[in-house]
Amino acid sequence: MGLSLIQDNVLQTRQLETSQEQRRVLSQLEMMLDEVHAAAVAAMPLADAPCESVLGALRRQAAVVPQVRSLLLARDGEVHCASLSGESGGDLGMFGGGQEALAFVAGSAVAPERPLLLYRWRQGSQQVIAVVDARHAWRAAIGRDVGDGAWRVAGMQLGNDGLARSPTRPDAAAIASSRYPIEIVADAPDAMPRPPWRSFHVGVLLVLLAGIPGGYLIHRLMPRRQGRHREYERAIRKGEFVPYYQPLVRAADMEWAGVEVLARWLHPNRGLLAPDSFMTGLERSRFILPATGYLMERAAHELAGMLPQLPVGFHVSFNITPAHLAGRWLPEQCQRFLSVFPQDRIILVLELTEREGVEADEDVHAVLEELRRMGVRIALDDFGVGHSNLSHLQDLRVDGLKIDRGFIARLGSPAGMTPILRTILDLAERMDLDVVAEGVETRAQADALIRHGVTLLQGYLFARPLAGQDLPSALSRTPLPPGAQHVDSTLKVNQLI
After folding, report:
1. Rounded to the nearest 5 degrees, what angle is found at the Cα of 91, between the Cα atoms of 90 and 92?
2. How far apart are CA 54 and CA 46, in angstroms?
3. CB atoms inside a 10 Å sphere around CB 85
4. Cα 15 from chain centre
5. Cβ contact 157:115 at 8 Å
6. Is 344 left (phi over 0), alpha (psi -120 to 50) or beta?
7. Beta-carbon neighbour count of residue 492 at 10 Å?
8. Strand 466-467 vs strand 241-250: parallel, antiparallel, or unpaired?
9. Do 161 and 113 form a contact (C-beta atoms < 8 A)?
10. Measuring CA to CA, which residue among 138, 144, 134, 143 is closest to residue 107?
11. Which of 243, 237, 355, 223 is nearest to 303 (CA)?
12. What share of the chain is helix, strand, coil (3-state, %, to 5)?
């Protein structure tokens, strides 16, 4: 009898934990849909205007909500503008989902196997349709992949194959939202994972250990975090994140070969901010994706205006994080960037920063494969420090490496070419990888790197990061003036790298 009571208590505890987990996930999804709804409402005034006159505003609106892949404007049953592709035409029926306010559909042109969620907001004959990556939204809420039968929308169930179908177990216990036609179902074995810290006894212990100091810290830190997030959202809406360009020099002929696009924050109160004052927090927030998207869009516009001055095969690189590889947002963003330029005119390079490591799972490989088909190159940034490791060279099948500036700085010391740097360069040569050396400040450093097969050079010896209006004049001069031996000290004033 005692064993039976223990089993009953364990079962009741597990049922309670499952119910609590369902409610937590439901709350996360409701908050996400609240943001999607707000974006759709804000875009509604644009629905009756010509696409060319509102496309910029539509894209900025779509960029604010990380889960929104695209916003569509429609009137009289016809879609006439899309934030991803611009002016478009087509009957609303082609997007599927019937006339439901919220519905699952399967796939897109870029990722046909990827499930999408459509949110419709109507006002008379006009509609705004928000397209959400359903799988990415689910993973953000639950912290893992979709489990069969775990999420239902408008009576339809999302399966692992990305198709919406009738529920396999309509009678399964579900918790429904009071605001949206969604349910969280726990009829799959792994649908609601039970983290170890959800154990009742462990939970009580953690609460006791945290006590009053933990509550005080949460009380103090939460408003600060919320304040930063409000600032990030405002910065994206108002276009405060601006691209700066640091030119790259081709080692083979010492000519300009491309630029790295770097983020600066034109803060309304604090002036122009360097990345080290905001980038870490931005990368850890949900605003890193929309901020990157806005930066790529603005850089495409500025570089297209100086295209006649750029050599064929001009490299344009952006920094990305593992968060960018979590969904299919990145290939679509790159496709939009490349569509601004004639084919093969620009070489797009994505430099993966590894401050938090990369989990090369099936989804990451799918994103990278899509990028390769588009001709986008992948490089590991700051190789040799942080989470960089040799397995990433093979697992991620990268095209190049960027050597951390710390190794370059040592080239001017008596130690010269360190064994680690020599090993990195030898490995890159054996694997046929492009190598970019950043932080080059002296001619001696440049000469040593060229002798050891570095492909591209970057640093203050050649040019500092430049605003868009200053880039054309910089590219019109010779990268390395005759007799230059080291970086001009004036270039190191107010350093922003």
Report:
1. 115
2. 6
3. 16
4. 36
5. no
6. left
7. 12
8. antiparallel
9. yes
10. 134
11. 243
12. 45, 25, 35
Are 347 and 378 a contacting pair, CB within 8 Å? no
- The owner of tokens 């997007």 is 95
The H helix count followed by the E strand count for the chain is 13, 21
This prediction's pTM? 0.66
How many Å apart are CA 44 and CA 121, to the nearest integer? Answer: 8
Helical H runs in 410-451?
Answer: 419-430, 443-451
Check if the beta carbon of residue 381 is closer than 8 Å to that of residue 416: no
Helix 51-64 vs helix 2-43: angle between axes, to the nearest 10 degrees? 150
Bridge-based pairing state of the strands 456-457 and 314-320: unpaired
Amino acid at 444: A
Neighbours of 11 (CB within 10 A): 10
For helices 362-373 and 329-338, angle between their N-to-C axes, nearest 10 degrees = 10
Per-residue confidence in pLDDT tens, the chain, 497 aa: 544 444 444 444 444 455 677 777 788 788 888 888 888 888 899 988 899 898 888 887 887 777 788 889 988 888 888 887 777 766 666 555 456 688 777 655 545 566 788 888 888 888 999 988 777 777 767 655 444 446 677 667 665 455 556 666 666 667 888 788 888 776 544 444 444 444 444 444 444 445 545 454 444 444 555 678 889 989 988 899 999 999 999 999 999 999 999 999 999 999 999 988 999 899 888 888 889 999 999 999 999 999 999 999 999 999 998 888 877 788 988 998 999 999 989 999 999 986 656 777 788 888 999 999 999 999 998 886 655 566 677 788 899 999 888 888 878 665 567 788 888 888 888 899 999 999 999 998 999 899 888 999 999 999 999 999 999 999 999 987 655 555 543 343 333 33
d(CA 291, CA 68): 13
Residue type, 414: P
Burial class (CB in 10 A: 0-12, 13-18, 19+), 107: middle
Can you list the domains of the chain with their CATH numbers? 15-185 (3.30.450), 199-227 (no CATH), 239-492 (3.20.20.450)
Gap between the Cα atoms of 378 and 393, Å rounded: 10
Nearest to 117 by CA among 108, 357, 462: 108
Contacts of 209 (CB under 8 A, 6+ apart): none
| Residue 472 token pair | 């054309």
